[in-house]
Amino acid sequence: MSMTDPIADMLTRIRNACGSKHRRVDMPVSRMKTEIARILKDNDFIQDYATVETEDGTKVLRVRLKYAAGGQPVIRALERVSTPGLRKYVGVAEVPRVRNGLGIAILSTSKGLMSDREARQARTGGELLALVW
Fold first, then answer.
1. Which residues pair with 53 in a beta bridge?
2. Over the stretch 55-105, which tens digit does the pLDDT of each residue have?
3. Do 29 and 44 contact (CB within 8 A), yes or no?
4. Sign (positive/negative) of CA torsion 28, 65, 31, 86?
5. So what's the pLDDT on residue 3?
6. Number of neighbours of residue 53 by Cβ within 10 angstroms
7. Residue 75: which of 47, 96, 51 has the closest Cα?
8. How far apart are CA 114 and CA 122, in angstroms?
9. Dihedral angle at the C-alpha atoms of 68, 129, 6, 59, nearest 10 degrees?
10. Is the separation of the CB atoms in 78 and 60 below 8 Å?
11. pLDDT tens per residue, range 1-37
12. pTM for this one?
């Protein structure tokens, strides 16, 4: 059975793993998910990510989660904004500042996936995929 929204599935897996205090989480791999993991790593929301091949030969994206000193997860919330049923596009002037700069917005632009800061520097808008703080 095909999945309707693989990005929402990825965000839900990370959200659930953080809530259960897991060290890592595995999910089916795709280029889009790998780019989202890269953005999360560049902005220090996760420790690391890698593409791993399992025993049965399928490839999975393994994300190592990051926790603060008291055991609190660094990722407080993950919110999917643009869904397959209702796309949300923003121009460069409407790119949101998440939690006054403490969080990030992930955008899909014509120049690839970027965080809100990168999109403002590149002076480009696009599809608002998710908010992370």
1. 59
2. 999 999 999 999 999 999 999 999 999 999 999 999 999 999 999 999 999
3. no
4. positive
5. 82
6. 10
7. 47
8. 10
9. -60
10. no
11. 568 999 999 999 999 999 999 999 999 999 999 999 9
12. 0.95
Two structure tokens written together for 100: 């006054």
Amino acid identity at 98:
V
Inter-CA distances, 17 with 23, 47, 113, Å: 8, 14, 24
DSSP the chain: ---S-HHHHHHHHHHHHHHTT-SEEEEE--HHHHHHHHHHHHTTSEEEEEEEE-TTS-EEEEEEE-B-TTS-BS---EEE-S-SSS--EE-GGG---GGGGTSEEEEEETTEEEEHHHHHHHT--EEEEEEE-
User: The tokens of 56 are what?
Assistant: 């049965």
Report the distance separating Cα 72 and Cα 83, nearest Å: 29
d(CA 13, CA 27): 8
Q: In degrees to the nearest 10, what's the CA dihedral of 12, 16, 18, 24?
A: -80
Tokens describing residue 108: 């899909």
